[in-house]
């Protein structure tokens, strides 16, 4: 029996939404019984990840859309708390201090009780729907929990970022891809002349490129260079020199050195001879003046 076309699209949408909600985003869960804030967090951590952490107005709307509507108190505990009355509001787990003043209900937080340092979210049909209220932590309310979808294996070389309806990977430098699984390829080290070859396996981060010279040539410089995190190769490229050319250069250098040594020796010998003659001249003058 053929399924009507409109029903096919309905099934596709339902299956697609189910896949997104349960595999590619943090999911919202809630308790069927009320409890204090501390017990609510313990219940969330035992069954899911933690009390809900909100990081944007969009996430706040996402949460409200998934919690059952309630006409009056009790509502739902969320993961915003003050450790002491004088401290700032923080989110559990991350210690984030993100706060949007527009999300507080009118005249909230007012701290009517001596220690209203825990937070609930209104889920009703009134004007304060989706707004926050500070309340005493021992008050009995439902727990609003979240289940994280990011796992240690979600991103191979990066940080998993979780937002409603999706997760994404913030890749480490030198990596790319949906899961940061691919090393970025950099331009290869092109040999400077025909006598130099490249034995590199790839051009990815931390890979090593080894150069060598063709027979009859000798390498000048460091043979191995490494691709760094910023995509640049370490050290200058080596060069190859023909053995005959290198030998001629070596002989020329040796000839210059020998010539310099010969000149120095001759200059020192001549200086020594002139000094000796000068001394003999002084001795002769002394003897002549004594005879007179």
What does this structure look like?
The protein is built from four helices and 16 strands. The strands form five sheets. Strands 1, 2, 3, 4, 5, 6 and 7 form a seven-stranded mixed sheet that branches. A three-stranded antiparallel sheet has the order 12-13-15, with no helix packed on it. The chain is elongated, with a radius of gyration of 41 Å. The protein is of the alpha+beta class. The chain has helices at 5-23, 37-47, 57-66, 243-291; strands at residues 27-30, 50-51, 76-81, 90-91, 118-121, 132-135, 142-147, 158-163, 166-171, 175-176, 182-183, 196-198, 208-213, 217-220, 224-226, 239-242. Mean pLDDT is 75; it is low at 1-24 and 287-292.
Number of helices: 4
Give the ordered list of helices and strands: HEHEHEEEEEEEEEEEEEEH
Question: Distance between termini?
Answer: 151 Å
Structural category is alpha+beta
Please describe the topology of this protein.
Elements: H1 5-23, E1 27-30, H2 37-47, E2 50-51, H3 57-66, E3 76-81, E4 90-91, E5 118-121, E6 132-135, E7 142-147, E8 158-163, E9 166-171, E10 175-176, E11 182-183, E12 196-198, E13 208-213, E14 217-220, E15 224-226, E16 239-242, H4 243-291
Parallel strand pairs: 3-7
Antiparallel strand pairs: 1-7, 2-7, 3-4, 3-5, 5-6, 8-9, 10-11, 12-13, 13-15, 14-16
Keywords:
disordered C terminus; 292 residues; alpha+beta; three-stranded antiparallel sheet; disordered N terminus; 16 strands; seven-stranded mixed sheet
What's this entry about, in short?
The protein is of the alpha+beta class and 292 residues long. The protein is built from 4 helices and 16 strands. Strands 1, 2, 3, 4, 5, 6 and 7 form a 7-stranded mixed β-sheet that branches.
């Amino acid at each position: 029996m053929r399924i009507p076309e409109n029903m096919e699209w309905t099934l596709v949408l339902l299956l697609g939404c189910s896949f997104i909600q349960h595999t590619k985003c943090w999911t919202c869960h809630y308790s069927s019984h009320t409890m204090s804030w501390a017990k609510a967090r313990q219940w969330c951590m035992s069954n899911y990840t933690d009390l809900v952490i909100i990081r944007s107005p969009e996430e706040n709307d996402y949460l409200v859309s998934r919690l059952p509507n309630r006409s009056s108190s009790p509502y739902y505990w969320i993961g915003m708390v003050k450790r002491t009355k004088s401290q700032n509001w923080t989110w559990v787990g991350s210690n984030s201090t993100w706060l949007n003043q527009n999300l507080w209900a009118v005249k909230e937080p007012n701290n009517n009780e001596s220690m209203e340092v825990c937070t609930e979210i209104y889920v009703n049909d009134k004007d304060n729907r989706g707004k926050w209220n500070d309340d005493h932590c021992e008050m009995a309310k439902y727990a609003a929990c979240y289940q994280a979808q990011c796992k240690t294996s979600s991103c191979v070389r990066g940080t998993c970022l979780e937002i409603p309806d999706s997760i994404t990977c913030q890749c480490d430098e030198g990596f790319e891809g949906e899961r940061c699984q691919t090393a970025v390829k950099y331009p290869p080290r092109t040999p400077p002349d025909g006598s130099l070859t490249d034995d590199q396996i790839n051009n990815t981060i931390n890979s090593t490129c080894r150069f060598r010279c063709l027979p009859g040539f000798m390498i000048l410089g460091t043979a191995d260079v490494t691709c760094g995190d910023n995509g640049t190769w370490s050290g200058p490229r080596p060069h190859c020199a023909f053995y005959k050319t290198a030998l001629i250069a070596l002989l020329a250098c040796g000839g210059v050195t020998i010539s310099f040594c010969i000149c120095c020796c001759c200059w020192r010998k001549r200086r020594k001879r002139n000094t000796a003659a000068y001394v003999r001249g002084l001795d002769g003058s002394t003897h002549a003046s004594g005879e007179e």
